[in-house]
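Weekly puzzle thread! Below is a chain. First person to post its structure in token form gets bragging rights.
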Amino acid sequence: MPLHIADEDAIRAGRTTDVYFERTAKILQARNIHKQVVMEVRAGSLPESYEWAIFAGLEEVTALLQGLPVTAYAMPEGTVFYPGEPVLWLQGDYLDFGKMETALLGCLCHASGIATKAARCRQAAGDKMVISFGARRAHPAIAPMVERNAFIGGCDGVATLEAARLLGVKPMGTMPHALILLLGSAREAFLAFDEIIEPEVPRVCLVDTIGDEKFEALTAAEALGQRLSGVRLDTPGSRRGDIVHIAEEVRWELDLRGYRHVRIFLSGGINEHEIARTRHVVDAYGVGTGISNARAIDFALDIVAIDGVPVAKRGKESGVKQVLVCPQCGKRQVVPWQTSTLDCPCSQEARPLLQPLLERGQLLRDLPSPQAIRDYVLEQVKIL
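Winning reply:
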């Protein structure tokens, strides 16, 4: 039996589209209607009352549109945007790209939701490490997409082999409960990991499988000594109690015995709120479901002009738009496309966020690496 996935050929061919776009195309073709449209992507609101979000998924959208007779302007991938701001617009004959709407929105909505949640976790963690542990909460076919967007959103590393290979980084992780159960004791598992796993891999021991976190943490410290890099708390909700108190207790006992170098790594049910609550005692986080199952950004793709005439459905503003930003004070404004000035007392010239991407299907600028996008995100999140 095959996996229930659409391959790249099916997606590019428009076979993942909603059926009503196919019916629209049939009608337009039957009536020989060819109209030049401008369609913009924007989100009128953001999930969980977010004030801002991260624009992601542009590289995949570019791959879908390349070769089609479509012109596109877009914010750079990784840009912080706000509700109501267009992040991308497309121009061309509707028949040439209308069938891509479902796939295009799917790429942007899902990727931007993951990157946004990762950025919020990054912001809450400050300089503490955050690793993406969420691949097991998503279909394996999209695990690299999940981990890529977690990484560009601010995670320091990813756990799965293929995502790490595509990103050009080393996969990061500790040890599972299965290892400890299969070897029969926590101490035996810690020693086996230290003996067999490559020395460049940090020795982080999982300390909540069989016994109390405090005592298993001390077992790990006594077994590995200075080689022990950290202990991971992944206590299930049914046993957790107050994880802050548990982490503080582990920290106290380790410090009391001279193991101040041992870091505390927390995973299991982590989000930006848990990070903020535990940051005073926790040194690193593994975030799974909180990032991989993040709420999608509710982008829509709407016609805003037909044959050069501004037009839009009810509730949407017609006309092609630009987002201008003051480089001095950071004020932003959505303006008609030809407007180059910003209503701002600063004298500096406003910076347009929507930049040329495609001209009739031809790529106009190099796409940045995931590392460069991540740096761009962190630079913005730091001052939010």
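Puzzle host: Confirmed. Bonus trivia for everyone else. Residues 139 and 258 are 44 Å apart (CA to CA).
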